[in-house]
Amino acid sequence: MSISSSVSAAVYGLSTEGYRIASSIAVKGGKVSLVDESVRMAITLKPDVARTYPNVASLIEDEPLLGLEPVDLAISDASYVYFAPRVRKVGQEAKGDIMSKFKDATKALKRGASVIYTLPTGLGGNDENIALIEHVTGMTVGKDISYYYMPIGTEPSGILSDILVGTSKGKNDGQISKMLYDPSGKNRINFVDINSAEMVYAIRTVSHYAGIASILEICKGGAGRIDSGLMQGVFKDLFIDDITSGLYDLRAIWSSLDGASPLTYLVNGSIKGIEGYVKHLIDEVRMSLKKRDLKASRTKVAIAWTLDSHEMRGDRIELLSSLESKLKDYIGDVEQQHGHSLDLYNTEKTTVVIACSKQDFSKVTAKNRQSQDLIIMKANPLCEIEG
User: Fold this and answer.
1) How far does CA 102 lie from the centroid of its chain?
2) Per residue in 302-340, pLDDT tens?
3) Over the stretch 99-149, which tens digit does the pLDDT of each residue have?
4) How far from each other are the two terminal CA atoms of the chain, in whole angstroms?
5) Are domains 8-202 and 220-386 of this chain identical in fold?
6) Where are the beta strands (DSSP E) in 19-110?
7) How many other CB atoms are found less than 10 A from the CB of residue 100?
8) What class is the 220-386 domain?
9) CATH 3.40.50.1820 correct for 8-202
10) Which end is more exposed in the chain, N or C (fewer Cβ atoms within 10 Å of the end residue's Cβ)?
């Protein structure tokens, strides 16, 4: 499905999700610029470059020579501006950082342009975005500028993968559909009004992660009392990597709620349950060492967690830092390892490897299955241990 040559787009954010959108537009023949928000410069993304580099990590690593232009020029030339920045702060700091970047992404908008906001907001969050656009540009959304809310889910496939596009215009935009069209049919693009988009995405998010938080709380301390065959079948592939992915979304929803209500308690409880898993995981490490009569001074911990450092959300990065810091309070010798380059060199210490995703667990076990001085712990609800 090709795009009209007269259509131009800019994607604000050198993120995994932003590059995915920009690549889709480029290979379909559209003119597209990809904005690196850290240096406020835009890359002109050509179809051959998009085909050569499957993701933003490979593009950054290879550093090909690309056409550059100032961010304001790229935005002012664009008919469609996608907002997909990297967020590395949390709470109110995150909100302030996002608003600053959103101002930067919209201040040079031309009349008739469309803004597509891809970060999830809380309930009513798009009203704030629209008000900010009108304040910064002096133009009216719905008359001079079009605004769309397209929250990109946390998973490439699964419960949050459908593309939901909220619009104040009340109708589909054929160009957006063409830009995002997936010939494999893996995603579906649904245009609804903005309020419906906020509510549907919030329902999906809260129901999904409230269920995960419930699993974590129920399983705490239950490893020795639960039918292992049944529970392993249910939870063996649910790792901290999956558990953490929706924290940004939950926090955005929670910050939009007023007062005490059942929904507030449900969302906040889900956040606390997921955040509290780190403490539970560390307690399980300590318990494992105690059962084996291993001293902390004679133990090394390797955290095997292969992260996408370019994804929009920084929740996994934040939790990895927290996990490493809290482990060091108990065990001084702690290091991060990427599953694809795991290097557990021989030491005089017993090594505990915490596998934080299904992929990392597979790589760890494949490389170190015969090691006698290796304890592998799955970072799943039951904190299962091998070795």
Assistant:
1) 18
2) 999 999 999 999 889 999 999 999 999 888 889 888 655
3) 999 999 999 999 999 999 999 999 999 999 999 999 999 999 999 999 999
4) 52
5) yes
6) 31-36, 41-44, 68-70, 80-83
7) 12
8) alpha beta
9) no
10) N
Average pLDDT, the chain: 86
Q: Tell me which H or E stretch contains 147.
A: strand 146-149
Q: Please tell me the distance from the alpha carbon of residue 47 to that of residue 79, in angstroms, as a whole number.
A: 19
pLDDT tens string 156-187: 443 345 688 999 776 678 888 888 877 666 66
Closest CA to 339 of 367, 371, 319: 367
Diameter of the chain measured on Cα atoms = 71
Residue 47: both structure tokens together: 């179809």
More confident residue, 16 or 374: 16
Residue 58 has which token pair?
């490979």
Asked if residue 43 lies in contact with residue 65, where contact means CB atoms within 8 angstroms, the answer is: no
Q: Pull the structure tokens for residue 76.
A: 């002012």
Tokens representing 4 are 């009209």
Looking at residue 159, its pLDDT comes to 36
